[in-house]
Design goal:
It comes from Candidatus Enterenecus faecium. With about 180 residues, this protein is α/β, with parallel strands linked by helices. The protein is about 40% helix and about 25% strand. The chain has two domains: about 120 residues, Response regulator (Rossmann fold, 3-Layer(aba) Sandwich), CATH 3.40.50; about 40 residues, no CATH class.
């Protein structure tokens, strides 16, 4: 199931996107504040993030940059009224994978989400990262920035489980 976090302060638009995507068997959570999206992302990562540019407590481009600093491969799509070329270019430069100008057709939005997810399926998942920490599964090595950290095999396995399940709660039994 595709899980969507949608940052949208317009209740009508948020509701219509949520209803349509849920009819397509997506799970959608709409947030009307950037701060709420950040809190949710720290706790759990969705399949895709949809961002409005103008929000009551900040700008979607700031949130996009914040997400990209932490999670390189999470798909991000802007849904915004800001349709001039400068804004579109800025959106992509900030890390967006797609940019949709309002008003838009809901079926086209869903098709764009599916197309984006097809493209990222082939991404090499041999390296996992969280902030400055990077785990290389091919070399079974852990790095802090560019410096390799020596860890024991049990420590490596625990770190691997935690990083593969970033944003999820892991029980002691799972470790």
């Amino acid at each position: 199931m595709i899980e969507v976090y949608y940052a949208e302060d317009d209740e009508t638009i948020g509701k219509s996107v949520k209803e349509y995507l849920e009819q397509q068997n997506c799970k959608v959570t709409v947030f009307d504040r950037i701060s709420d999206v950040r809190k949710a992302l720290i706790g759990h990562l969705p399949t895709v993030v949809l961002l409005d540019w103008n929000m009551p407590d900040g700008q979607g481009n700031e949130l996009c940059l914040w997400i990209r600093e932490r999670w390189k491969y999470i798909p991000i799509i802007y849904l915004t009224v800001r349709g001039d070329s400068h804004d579109i270019v800025t959106g992509f430069q900030n890390g967006a994978d797609d940019y949709v100008v309002k008003p838009f057709d809901l079926a086209v939005l869903y098709s764009r989400i599916l197309a984006l997810l097809r493209r990222i399926e082939g991404i090499d998942n041999t390296k996992l990262s969280c902030d400055d920490l990077m785990l290389d599964k091919e070399r079974t090595a852990v790095y802090d920035g560019k410096k390799e950290i020596v860890v024991s095999q049990p420590e490596y396995r625990i770190l691997l489980i935690l990083m593969e399940n970033k944003g999820k709660t892991i029980t002691r039994n799972q470790l």
